[in-house]
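Entry 14. Two folds queued back to back today. First construct below, sequence then structure tokens.
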Amino acid sequence: MQRMVNRVLLGLAGLVLIVVGGSVLGVGLGASPPTWWIHDDSNDVLLSNAERTHWRDAGWWWPTVLAVLALLVLLSLWWLAAALRRRRLTEVLVDTGDGEGALLRGRAMESAVAGEASRLEGVERAHVTLTGRRTAPEARVELLLQPHAAPEEALLRLTTEALANARDSAGLTSLPAEVSLRGVKHSAERVS
């Protein structure tokens, strides 16, 4: 969802910048603008003195300008924080029982679960990504199933074997998982 919102916002911002910049460049190079356009010729300024000072004496103008700018800054900071936030879990906290705890690298756990899942019957390939917090990780598993695999059986064996082993070995009370199943593309078989 966030990836889609990010792409739409970037696309809209890029489109606005291209249209406005291209039209200003075109007018500056001598193209005739439409009658409703804010610039008339290549010597026209973006905002004239009269346009800049038109609302200056109105009591609502400056609070509105400041509120809109503050909102734009807050939305930009939120967008930047969302883009920079790590999606992947870098480490998992393993309870050792002595009150200390140990850190398990997230990539190591991902590759262990993916390796065990890819060895399951009917699974061609597996990809695992850990998300969440280091004390409560969550798994996103993508399984590529062989042509004759039973999805229900592959999902059951994934949860009872690969994910259960990862949960038990890391000492976690639970390891929620979101599993995506896809089939291998293969050509049709001939029937004789």
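Second construct, same run, same settings:
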Amino acid sequence: MEQAHAHHEHHQHHGHEQPGEPGEHGHGNHGEHGHGDHGDHGSHAGHAGHAGHGNHGKVSWAMAAKATLHCLTGCAIGEVLGMIIGTALGWGNVPTMVLAIVLAFFFGYALTLRGILAAGVDFRTAIRVALAADTLSIAVMELIDNGVIALWPGAMDAHLSSPLFWTVLAIALAAAFVITVPVNKWMIGRGKGHAVVHQYHH
């Protein structure tokens, strides 16, 4: 009788514990598995967002135009300043143009650099990003811009006080802008150029 009673208690004890164990185990698995899955989904969503941002088909002309205008501003400042300095120092056409191109690159990089540094990026990284973002864009722009000025009759010899100088400069910058916009659109679509800069502004 005592053995039967002990066996009965043992059976009750075993039956009481058994439902609890799967419950705890199930909840543990459910919690870990569920949260793990959500974490993975979040990670994939983040990657999908970056992939969409770098997709060539998603790049708008407005985005490319904005990036080009940014470069154009720096180039225009550098070129005009170079022309003023070269003229003031009595330099010839070639050294003045070289100075204008150097300053165009300098101010083009400087404007991009300012925005990246404002996002809290260290200086060395900011320099690399600016070089990667603007080099091709500024190079194409300067090639078109200075090509127009060099080929326009009398433009190279025009003084800063001459309407011809400013007219040709405006036409040259406009031509550079129109031709460089597709270049920037292509670069951003490949995750290069100003696409490199955009990730530091989020």
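Quick look at the second one. The mean pLDDT is 74. Residues 2-53 form the longest helix (52 residues).
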